[in-house]
């Protein structure tokens, strides 16, 4: 279990929300249908070597929104600790012109992927697209701060503008820690956590937050909260870890 460290900081009251969208497969295929499926439906393909022996991750960022090297390193270590890909996991970064679409709604997510994604599954290599956006998510409530959205089976958007704004506040975690936590959490949804594509080994889905874990401190909780001068500081640099129930779910579909 993760230990919570109490640290005296300036008052911060915000909930980081991880937004995870389940969508139907697009009718416009053009040979890309394997990467246009429901969120969590390719968990076994992502985590095991039964179908795909390598993983190619395309990280696209709007100019000026490159993620930190530390976050990418933590993210790669997270993947290597959970997946079987004997031919390796490649992470490639490149920049694109800002989209100008902020705030992003579901149609914007599809459009920016269509405009910037270049890699799709080929042979025994599975491809993932991750976009670091020059904007924020269109919110239904002023009380929510959304850091990332997992949508489709191999697609993630990270709201880098939102992350940087929060990281700049007094007492907030570093930008690298927030980026890495968001990347790991959203990739957990691509794996199929929680009950998105994996049948849970035990009952640990939050009844109030579909697709999320009910264990305090787990990476797959729906939010990370910073309240009343307390930070949920975590051993090992501050990035939340998967709890035992989530790990058992991943192992049930061929993960480590």
From TrEMBL:
Keywords: Signal. It comes from Christiangramia gaetbulicola. This is Membrane metalloprotease. It comes from the Bacteria. Residues 1-19 form the signal peptide.
């Amino acid at each position: 279990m993760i230990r919570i460290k109490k640290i005296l900081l300036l008052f911060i009251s915000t909930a980081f929300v991880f937004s995870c969208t389940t969508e139907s497969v697009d009718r416009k295929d053009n040979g890309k249908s394997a990467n246009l499926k429901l969120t969590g439906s390719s968990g076994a393909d992502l985590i095991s070597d039964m179908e795909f022996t390598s993983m190619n991750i395309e990280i696209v960022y709007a100019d000026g929104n490159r993620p930190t090297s530390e976050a990418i390193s933590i993210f790669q270590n997270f993947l290597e600790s959970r997946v079987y890909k004997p031919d390796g996991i490649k992470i490639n970064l490149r920049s694109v012109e800002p989209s100008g679409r902020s705030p992003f709604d579901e149609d914007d997510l599809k459009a920016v992927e269509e405009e910037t994604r270049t890699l799709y599954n080929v042979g025994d290599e599975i491809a993932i697209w991750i976009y670091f956006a020059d904007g924020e998510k269109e919110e239904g409530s002023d009380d929510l701060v959304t850091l990332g959205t997992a949508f489709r089976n191999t697609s993630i958007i990270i709201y880098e503008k939102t992350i940087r704004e929060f990281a700049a506040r007094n007492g907030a975690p570093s930008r690298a820690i927030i980026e890495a936590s968001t990347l790991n959490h959203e990739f957990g949804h691509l794996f199929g956590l929680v009950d998105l594509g994996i049948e849970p080994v035990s009952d640990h889905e939050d009844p109030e937050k579909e697709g999320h874990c009910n264990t305090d401190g787990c990476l797959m909780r729906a939010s990370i909260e910073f309240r009343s001068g307390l930070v949920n500081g975590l051993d090992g640099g501050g990035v939340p870890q998967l709890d035992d129930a989530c790990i058992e779910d991943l192992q049930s579909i061929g993960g480590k």
